[in-house]
Amino acid sequence: MSLAIALHLLASTIWVGGMFFAYMALRPVAAGLLEPPTRLTLWARVFERFFPWVWAAVLVLLGSGLWMTFAVFGGMAGVGLHVHLMMALGVIMMLIFLHIYFAPYRRLSQAVEREDWPAGAVQLGLIRRLIGINLILGLLVVVIASGGRYFP
Fold first, then answer.
1. What are the structural domain ranges in the chain?
2. pLDDT at 113 over 80
3. What is the chain's Cα-based Rg?
4. Mean pLDDT computed over every residue of the chain
5. Which of 76, 104, 86 is nearest to 5 (CA)?
6. Is 117 left (phi over 0), alpha (psi -120 to 50) or beta?
7. For the chain, N or C: smaller number of CB within 10 Å?
8. Per residue in 37-61, pLDDT tens?
C-alpha cells in the first residue's frame, strides 16, 4: 500500500505540477517575449518532452489507484465518496489529455513543421484552454485527495 500511495502521489505531482508551471510561469513569459515562430516551436518542443511524462503519470495513476481500490479496499463499495470523486475527475483529466495529445498537439506539431504560424497559434490556444481546465481539475483532485476523507 505504501508503494502504491507513493507512486500515486509522485505521478500526480509530476502531472499537475508540470501543468501549473507551464500555465502559470512559462506561458505568460513566452507570450510576452517570443514572436510566434519561436513561441510555437518552443511549445511544440516542451510538449514533446512533457507528454511522455504525462503518459507515464496516467499509467501509474490508473494502476496504483485501481490496485489500492480493489486489492486494498475490496472495490468501489469499500472507498469513500472522496475516492469516487477523485476517480471521476481523474478519468475526465485523462480523457482531456488524450484529446490534447491526439488532436490539437498533433496539429500544432504539423503546423510548426510547415511553418504555418496562424494554424499553430489556433492549436496552441486550444491546448492552453484545455490544459487550464485540466489544471483546475487537477488542483481540485489534490484538495479532495488531501482533505476528502475529513469531509462529512
1. 2-150
2. yes
3. 17
4. 96
5. 86
6. alpha
7. C
8. 999 999 999 999 999 999 999 999 9
Contacts of 87 (CB under 8 A, 6+ apart): 65, 69
Query: How far apart are alpha carbons 108 and 42 in whole angstroms?
Result: 11
pTM for the whole structure: 0.94
Q: Give the separation between CA 145 and CA 8, rounded to whole angstroms.
A: 11
Length of the chain: 152
Q: Tell whether the model's pLDDT for residue 152 goes beyond 70.
A: no
- For 121, the grid coordinates are 497559434
Burial 37-62 (b: 16+ CB within 10 A, else e): eebbbebbeebeebeeebeebbebbb
